[in-house]
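Supplementary Note 3. Input sequence used for the single-chain structure prediction.
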Amino acid sequence: MTPLAGSPNTPLEPPERHSTRQRTVSPSGQAARKSARIIGTGSYLPEKVLTNSDLEKMVDTSDEWITTRTGIKERRIASPEEPTSSLATEAARRAIEDAGIAAEEIQLIIMATFTGDVLMPATACLVQKNLGATRAAAFDLSAACTGFIYGLSVAKQFVLSGFYDTVLVVAAEKLSCVTDWTDRNTCVLFGDGAGAAVVSSQGEGPRIIGEYLASDGSIYELLILPGGGSLHPPTHQTVDQGLHFLKMSGREVFKHAVTCMVDGAQKLITQHNLSPQDIRLLVPHQANKRIISEVGKRLGIPAERIYVNIERYGNMSAATTSVGMDEAFRSNQFNPGDKILLVAFGGGFTWGSVLLEW
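The predicted structure, written as discrete structure tokens, is reproduced below.
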């Protein structure tokens, strides 16, 4: 009688992890010391542009008011036919192409978002289907605006452990779906977009040399999307109360964002025995131009070494840091040894940083 799979007589074998790449093995048979590198990046922004002038026709605001307080001039808005998975898929395709690999070589997809297509299944699984990444495991990661930082950190651990060789990290948000377009204090801030990075132990690209993650859930209510979960399931009442739109205590969030982003950046600078002068480029979360300026001032990093694109895209949550990194890589000239520091802050509260070496 043939034993059933999983019975005491036939222990289950772990699933095979496919890869077309060869793993370097030392003479002793142990895997050689690995590094985690970003070997490809990509980003995608929807075609529709919503300007401050457009918003003047929608709510009681002005271009001068928005620009002075946020630094934002315009943002991108996805069409009704573009769910978050579509934005993520296009950014991922570009990152995979940039890495010079096939989708079948991706072994894990980490999707950073809080505006997934559906609550279940994970949007990462839909991206996997769209890409044809048939050998990849996939899961979503929820850390709000810090999602891409958290995702890179998780990807690095998988790669350094040897469990996977090639991991795709995607950060995508369709914030237009959870924005109250009658609230002039919040609707001017947000936009849609996606960015992606391929992290691998094989290939060329900037090395992830450090990461720092933090959170403080005691003040979670200052930045929250209240409705839709088990606390406030969707009902007529939650819809009428606007609980399915982002809620933010702007002044308090501003204060914590500056403090936490400075903390996240300074932690890695100190841990790696660096000075602010050693940071070739700071790529911060693009929440508010004044936040970015204050963070740079406190860190002692001049404006010319801080990447800023908020005037074109607004706050895209987890996608801001990934899009900023992709654009920076394509528009800046880096030399071997240059340090690039990513830092972000988001709901949770969560914050963190990633240090790259070119």
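The mean pLDDT is 89. The longest helix spans residues 250-271.
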